[in-house]
Structure formats: structure tokens, C-alpha cells
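Q: Protein A?
A:
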Amino acid sequence: MKNKKIIAVIILIILTISIIVGICKNNVQTEELQSIKSEKQLMSIYNNQNDKGSIIPKILGGIPYACLEFLMGGVNGSLEVTTDSSTITNGGINSVLESATDTSTVKKENSNQKESTSSENDYSTTNIQVENVDEADITKTDGNYVYSISENNVLITNVENPENMKIEASLSNPGYVPEDIILYNGKLVVISTNYTSSNQYTYYNNSLNDNTMVTTYDISDKTRIKKANEYVVYSRYYTSRCINGQLLVICSDMLRKENDKIVTYYMENNEKKEIGLNNIKYLKGEATNYQTIIASTNLNTNESVKLSEYLFNIENAYVSENNIYLVNSEYNNNKTPIFENIKKLLLKGIIGYIRNIEMADYDYNKYTTIYKFKINDDGSLKYNNKTKEEGSTINQFSLDEYQNNLRVVLSGNEGSRIVIFDENLKKIGSTEYLSKGERMYSTRFLGNKAYMVTYKNTDPLYAIDLSIQTSPKVLGELKIPGYSTYLHPYDENHLIGIGMETKEKVYRDSFGKVKRTTAIITGMKMALFDVSDINNPIQISKTVIGDSRTTSAILTNHKALLFSKEKGLLAIPVNKYESDFEINVNNEDNISDMESIYTKYNKSYTAEGYFVYNINLTDGFKLKGIIEHEKNTSIGYSYGESKLLRGLWINDNLFTVSEDMIKVNKLDDLSLISELKYKNR
């Protein structure tokens, strides 16, 4: 008996060391991608069979299973362990908001302005995140032509003579709806989606597959436009980038099954091609039945598409000039720090500890996994590493690459923080948690500074110093009503915030004691912040648009913004609502009463269109005018709420483009020059 106790103690010590070594090893070691070996293996993954098993191996980090089985002998039978065990990734539908933010310096910020190399005209470009990394959008220009999506067509409009605009060409692919376009050096890329029924694939009982078609047109001669290349990927379109002519299209969806086989092919120029099982990669123990496909083509050479497929889902993506970061979040109950695990292990013993793990209380904290891929010169991808941290990102601007390091804003149950990783995704620094219980709304990285907005009843704007990347510090905080869902640099010392204005409501009991507080949205807000003193950010100007129902595409899509500091211009699509009523509240304990009980009500809708502002540091925001387009009642939604209205400028003229028409107005006074209707095309 004494010898057995000694053996048990020895094994316990070995296990403790194994936990430390195993987890530390997992944190720094680069894991290699594995290739699918057979269709049978792929089908097993599709059926969610490959990665099932006990959660114990994941938590204990590589403890010798034989030792566990020895110690567990006779307890609930044998311990079930598989070598590929892992926590199954959350299999929900991708849900990401595309909002906006940064590049590494203010100079690199794209402000919708570009000096043309192919045209003598000066014209705006799409509001992007990273300099030299173009993003697809629904409207583009090269200074002489406007390229835009109108229902199932992509229209090329000649705007060389603003007084006599004309449609030069209309491009379409039957069965496909254009989602995005890319413009590069005489090439027009149209990314389209079709929806095909399938009894093998369902989301909430809707049997729909999203296939992605990427068509590249040679438009160097507008009278003789021809297809340069076309391919179809059997997955859902997520996002795309163009870097010096290297086009990257990212798709993510569940694996597809066709005739009892997993779809491992794509179509290029009407020819069926195999992706190849060796090009379908996964990390050992982490393969899911979700696929992420990255398609790469060189627009300079018209080469065939290169496809890389990875067996994980994504909810976010950030692309720099040299790297792609793919982000996925999952719920994970393994949040206990290693030393807490050791403590529990020593106090409860192996059996008690394992039982505690198997019956762990789920805290429903999200954990974010970030996968890093290097973009090679030929467009192929090289896997670098992955990392996993507690919390989740809100959009692509939660991430930023700076001096080869990655900065990430993560939000969870404990609050929000910035975590910094080196080029191999090893964590090197982090701020403390901020604003526990508050939701993260926006982030902006500007060189060695960062700005974060969280919100509950007021809007804390945090200013963070990142100059020492191993020790980032929160230096300033500004609390004001409302919140910003998008932050955009005005210059290196000033920041524009766009979001919603709120009013705090205090509820008291019969004794006057505060029971609770809440906030009520009162309108859409734009604010200008002075951040020259990072220790003391201040709001120097604001304007509120409409009431609580007012919306704008800029609230969820940064590409809806047109901004130029030099021109003193800020313009966005807005669906403005404004109510004229007096509230008569009898029961303050019910917010709905406050919103529904009124004495008079005159207006519910005032304006819908493109709101053009003069902006400067002295006067703040001054509404210059509203450019209205005809309502497209057939589609049932508004310009402010949708992506259907964009603005751009060419020289001294402002062009506004919707599905139905294009208008051109003078920038100085917004007087109408001409308009061209598309609906009768």
C-alpha cells in the first residue's frame, strides 16, 4: 500500500509538470498544417466525427493518457480519450459587421483621395483600412468612368463630360447577382453570388447555397470589353482585397456535399478543376466541417487562379500588404489559468479534478483564434502560426499590423483590452481590462496610439499609448453621452466619431433612491475629438441628425464615407427620421410607455439621400445640403440603411450613385449639373 502511495505521488508530480510543459509548449510552438489524406477522412470531418472526444486532453495539455487511465481505474469505467480531441468550433453563420479603421500611420490613412496615374483627373477612391490594400465596393471610378452595381448589372458610365454622361457598357452574368467590384490597371473584377437550392445544406430550414463567381474583364478598350478570366468557388463570399494587382478573394462556408461526396472542385473558364486533397489543410485536432477558401489571381498576368482551403470557420479578416489574419471565435469553458488548474489538481486529486473538468460550469466566454498567413510574391500563402486569446473582435478594425507586430482589441466578460503579438503571434503585451459590462463599439489604431469606444449608458473614449508595445498604457478617457460605431482620423491630432446620441434615464423608487439607469437613443451623432493631448481627449464639436430611427450605411460599413480634409468635405448616405411630439409619461418604470405615449405627432420622415457637410476644426460640422435620389420602392429599403448610395468626387464635381441613377453636382455650392437615370437602361 505504501509503495502504491509513493507511485501515486510520483505520478501526480509528473502530471503537474506535464500540465505546465504541455501548455507552455502549446503557447509558443508553431503547429504545422496537415493535408487531407483521403475522401473518407474528409467525409468524417463533414459528419463532425473527426474531432469528437473528451475535453480532458485539451484542458490538460498533453498529459500522458496511460497515467490518467491508471489513476482513474475503476472510476466510471475507462477514461475516453482520442488523440485528435478538441473543442468543436462554433458552427454558426458568419456574422460580421464591416466597420472601419486604421493603417499604421496617419499618413497611410486613405481619405478617399488619390492622384490618378492613368488619368489627368484628381478623384476620390474607396475608403480603405490599409494603404495599398484596396477593398472591393459597389462603386469605383478611374476619373473618367464610374463603375457601379445596378441590380443584376455592373454599369460603366462615361463621366468625362459631366453635362452629358452616358452608359458605355452593361455587364451581367445570368443567375448571379454582383456584390462587389475591384478596379485595377485596366481590369474590372466583378464578384457575384448566386443562390442554389440543395437538400444537403440548410441554414434555419432555408435550403440555400451561396456560390461565388469572380469575373475579370479587360476594360482597356471600352468599346471591346472582354473577359480575361472567370472562376466559380462553391462557398460563400466573405471579403476581398487587391494588393498591387494580386487579387485575394476569401470565402467561408460549410463543406458542400454532392452525390454523397464532398465538393472538392471549382470551375475556371467553364472547366472543372480539382482543388486537390493536398491543398485542403487543417490543424491536427481542430478540423471542422467549415471551410475557408482563399482564391488568388494576379491581375497583371491573367494567370490561373490559385486556391487554398482550410478547415475552419472565420468571423473576421484583416489583410495587410504582406499578411492575412483570419479570425474565428468560439465558446470555450477552459478559461481557468494554469496555476488555478494546478491548485485544484493538488487540492482535489486527480479524480476530483477530472470530474470537475467534465462537469465544468460553462461561463460562455468567447475565445478568439487568429490564424496568420504570409502572402508570397506569387500570390500563394504560407501558414505562419495561430494564437488563441479570451474575448472576441467586433470587425476588421479590431486588428492592426504595426512594425511586424499585431495589435488586437478583444472584448469579453471581463471587459475590453488591447493585446499585442509579435510576428509569430506570441503575446508580448496587453493593457488591463477596461469597462467591464460594457459593449465594445469601435476602435481606431493610429501609429503608436489607439482609441477605443465602449458603451453602456455613456460613451467612454479611451486613448491608449502603444509606443512601448510590451507595456501599452491607457492614458486618457472621455465620457460623453452616446457612442461611436466608427472612428476616422481627421488628422494626426483629431478624430471623427460617427454613431448615435443618447440620453441617460434615471429610475427612482418612491423614496427617491436610484433603482437603475438606462440610456435612450435620441438621434444619430457625428463628433469631432481633439486627441492632441492623449491624456485628456476632448470633444470640440458635434451634430445630431434626426431622431432614434435615423440610420446610415456608415454605421456598419466604412466604405460609405466620403471624406477629404483638404476639401473640407464629409459626406454620407442618411435615412433621416424626425418626430415632432411631446412626451407625457405616467409610468416611468416602462420605457415603452415613454416612447409610445405622446400628446402630438406631426412628422415621421424628413429626408433620405446623401448628406454633404463642410467640416473644419473651427466650425465643426455644417450641413451644406442633401442630394436626393429617386426612391427605389421596388427593393423596399432605404439608402441610409443600405449600401445602395455612394459618393465620389472628380476634380471639382461631386457624383452620387445609386441603383437607379447617377447625379453630378458642383462641390462648391452643390448646384445640379446633370443626372442620368439607370432604370430605363
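Q: Protein B?
A:
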Amino acid sequence: MWVCRVFDIEQKYIDLLHLGCPLIFVEKINKQFGSKIIFRDVSFHLRPKEKVGLIGENGTGKTTLFKVITGRETLDSGQVKLRKGLRYGLLEQDQEGGEESVLERVVLGDPHFLQVKKEMEKLEADQKFQDRYGMLQHEFERLGGYDREARAKIILQGLGFKLGQWEKSLNQLSGGWRMRVELSRILLQRPDVLLLDEPSNHLDLQSVIWLESFLQSYDGSILLISHDRKFLNTLTTRIFELDRATLTVYSGNYDDYEKQKESQRAQLESQAENQSRRIAEVERFIERFRAKNTKATQVQSRIKMLDKIERVQTTKNTKSIHFRFPQPVRTGRNVLEMDKVTKYYGALKVYENFSITLERGCKVALAGENGAGKSTLLKMMAGVLLPDSGEVRQGVKVSRSYFAQHQGELLNFSHTVLESLQESASGLLRTQQRNILGAFLFSGDDVEKKVSVLSGGEKSRLALARMLCGKAASWNKSSLPTDAEASAPPSLILLDEPTNHLDIRSREHLAAVLADYEGSLVIISHDRYFLDGFINKVWDICNGKVREYDGNYSEYEDAKSEDELVEEKGQARRVEKNAPTSSTLEKERKRKEAEERNLRYKSLKPLEARLEEVENRLEILIAENEKLQSELANSGIYEADQKGRLMKTMEQQRNLKDEEQTLMKEWDELTLSIEEVQKNLIL
């Protein structure tokens, strides 16, 4: 039996009669902000030791539900019950700073622990209160007081903090890092219930994987808001979906939820179809006999019946995108090259004599531990950050745009959504612009919303739409574009955590758009399922070096695990001083690899050599053309006595353009030939 009272402003915690009851019980709660209904008769319960994912599109009320549970938001009606003595830890997105250090905040951030510690210190030398001191000591031990600092450091390291960083004050940290501190504080307390609002936001992949492992072994209950599909699949045993003010409970993880959702959708569509046929039959009867007095009673009966029928509402299937975005200009084979790049932050060496080449069509995910240099590499590729030495070169016909984590905040807040896109994609028809916005989930009246009222996720979606169909931010200075090329989308996009604040549906749409994109891209993201949808290469960064892996992120994880296993075995052999073994199969494999390499070199080497010659000559022609342009811009050349010089200069320019056109045609043919050869060879 429950001992409870209706939830109101004063009542935050509800006594329950016994421990076997659910930890949290929510019953028929209703909440409305103005005309917007947030919850309509929402009910659920959270059992001990279970892990539940709370999902829904942005703005459906997930964070508000957390506020209701913790008593920081009142209800219009309904009740929330919490077990007596329930300890919960709440992680929110926005965290404040402070003068205290990272370690102090994590270790001493539990008010109850701090109170016990202070009282123990006060009574330690007083023999009169030994009994009280003994009770406090027992509680101190229960709270892990003696190894608390050591456990705090383990958690901080798992979430990406390096040795020494935990001595920084909170005021020195960004909002994302303060969120990590708060998460560390909550995890250290090990409360009965964890209420986590998008905990993987602002974490790198290594930290996400560590957090997954930690939460898997967590012996308390978890209610988790997340848009990371793989994270949800790994952790959850039930899914709560908030949609149109109602909450539906599904068993299993996110994949199980999708299967059940699809089954329900199919059933509803079948019911709706059957109902429509029945309604049509009744309407035909009414229309046929409406004028006949003999059938008046039957007609009226059927009219009343139609009025009473509750129409079956089908759910809309929103997975597919039926619009192809504008595509970029075709670039050279080498899109971007970094040659002997060195970068320091003070005394900290990030890269030294680092070189790498990004080829056309590559969609690369940057992987590596926090602090490995992923963001630094991306910023140098974008030209936002200059190397201390070395060179970053854009290829022929390459234009680039860079998407930073807070790009949405740089939009013009006075514009509508449609006006904002028009500013970037002025060359497209209005219907095309609306189709693009529809692909990014802005439909109907949404396009007339002011940017100022959009959520963080909506601003990010709009910024991404502008980037993918708008003009490039920067071009290769040595190959200035034509008017048509200048209006095309960038041929290289560089994305830093574009999925932060995007819900699952938005992420699926963005992945589909990026899969359709024909340019090159480099991306940092902590969402592994999202990356699997479009990337074809992973650059694993470690100690200022990069190891390349072909395939998507899941394939990279498998290949890296195999590499690590091979390395471990190799190290073991060296330690044991075992003589190397070479089987017939291994020899045969190496022989075939050598043959394949030779075949590739024989086929590709002359093509690649000629392509390099063409590209070098094009660079020379572009430079010479710039000199001629400068000469023609000089008014003195148009004087009567300079006629011969003018004619000669113009003739030189015509010859340069003719040669450039011829070379560009050859360049196109060469690149296509190289691609064809690469397709037919084992590379």
C-alpha cells in the first residue's frame, strides 16, 4: 500500500510504506505552459536497478519531466511519489562556475558527506562525544570517505581529465568541461537514482565508451535522456517515449523500441484503412437514402454513429529524405595536404613534422583520446588555426567551410528560418529552399519562426542547412572560382560535433544528407551510430601521429581491436624471446600483397605522374594569369603609345586561357581514369 499525498509546490518527497515499491511513481500528471500542453495523463514507474531511456524530439518536455520529478516544477494535476530516503543525482546541461577546484567540487560536492566530515573533524579531539564520533565515522566509511579522492581521480580520468587538470578552478573551464565535473561529482556519490540529461554531450568518444562501461556496472537505477542511439542500445532495458504530450513505455533497448514502433505503426495503418472503408460505406448509405422518408431513421442512426467514431490516428513515418541537396564542384584528387606541420600550445607539443593527405571523396571521422589533437587538426585544416611551421595546402577547385560546436549562436536572430537560409542559398528557387528546410525538419509555419525563438538543436540544424547548400567560406586562392562555382556548396566541409543538441530523428536526417553529399568531409563526433551512416575512413590520432583505417566506425573499432591484439601478442613474443615463425599461408599472403602493390604501381604511376604535371602547370598558369590581370588593371597600358604592349598582353592572356582549358579537360580525364583503375584493383 502506498502512503502518499498529491504532488504540489511544497511536497517534494513522498513516503512509501516499504522498500519493495518502485523508487519513483508518476501517476496521471498534467502540465501546460500557456496554450502548449506538455503532459497529458502521463504515468510511469521506475523500479530498483533498472536503466530506462527517455526519448522524444526536442521540445517534447523531457527536461521538464526531470524538473517535475525533483520538485522544481509544479504540476497542474496528478501526483509524483518518491520512496522515503531516496537519494538521486541530477545532471543538467547548464553548469555554473566557481572558485573551487575541479577535485574539490567532485570530492566535497555532496552536502551530506561534507557535513559528516566537518562534524567528525570538530569532535575528533573531544572524548565526551565518542559515541557520536563512532556513528559519524561509520557513515564516513559508508560514503567512501577514506578512498574518496582516489575514486574521484579515476572518474575524472575516465571522463577525459588529465593529470593536473583537476587543480584548475571551475571558472577556468568551458561549459562542456564543467558539465563533466558535475557528472563526475554525481557518479562519485552513487545515488539510488541517476537522472542524466544527455550525459554524452561534450564528451569525446573515449569518454563516452568509459561512461557506458561505468553505467553498465552501476547498481542503482538510471533514467537517461539521450539522443545517442548506440549509447541507449548498450545501457537501457526500457524506453519511455514522450510524443505529443503523452508517454508510451516500450520494453528493451532502442532497437527493440523501433521494431515495436514499426509494428504498431503497421497495425494502426491497417486499422485506419479498415476504418476508412467502413466510414466510406456508411457515408454512401447516408448519401443514397438521405432523401427517402422510409429510410430516415436508419440514416439518422448512421449519422450519429459517424459522429461517435473515434478516428484512428496513424503515426507519420519520417525516416526518408526525398530531396537531393546541391552538390559541390568536382575537385582535384588531393583535396587538402598537410606537409611537415608543427603545432605547439606553449610548451605542449601537439604535432611535429606531421603530414597527411585528404583525397577526393573521403569522409573521415577523427578518433582518439581527449587531448590527442582532434580539434586542433580540424581547425588547422579549416584555416581557423595556423601551424607554427609547415604548410596546409588546398587542392585544385577546393573550397571549404567549417562548422564549430556553437555555430547556431552566430545566426542573425532577427531573421526568420526561411530568411536565414535565403541569405546563404540565394541561388536556389524558393520551393528548393523550402524543401531543404523540410529535410532539416522545418516544415509548414516553422519556416516563419524567428531564429531568436529556436532551441539549440533547431539553431544547429539551420546552421548545418545553410552550410550544406550555401556558398563556401573560403576558396583556394590560387584557383579562383567562376561565378557558377562560387555559388556552389563547399567541396570540403569540416564538422566539429554537429550532433550536439540534435535529437535522434534529426541525426538520422543529417546522416542521410551527409551520405548523399558528393564532396569530402572531416568530422569529430561522439555518436558512433551516426558516423556509421556515411563515413568511409577513420583517422586515429595518437601522440601526434595518425593511423588510417578504411570503413565505417564499427569496422574501425573491430580493426583497431585486432591491431591491439596483434601488438600484444608481438610484445609477448619479444618478452619470451620466441623465434619468429613463418607459415606457408603467411608467405603466400605477403607474396600476393606484393604482386597487387606492383600491379597498382604499374597501372597508376604514369597516370598519377602526368596528373601531378598537369596540376603543377595549372598552378603556374594561374600565377601568370594573375600577373597579366594586374598589368591590365594598370590604366597606363591603355594610353595610345602603349597599344602594342596592350595587344601583346591580351594575346598572352588568351593563350593562357586556351592552355588552361586544354589542361583542365586532360585533368578531368586523368582523374576519371585513376578512379576507374582504383576500382578494379585491390588497393
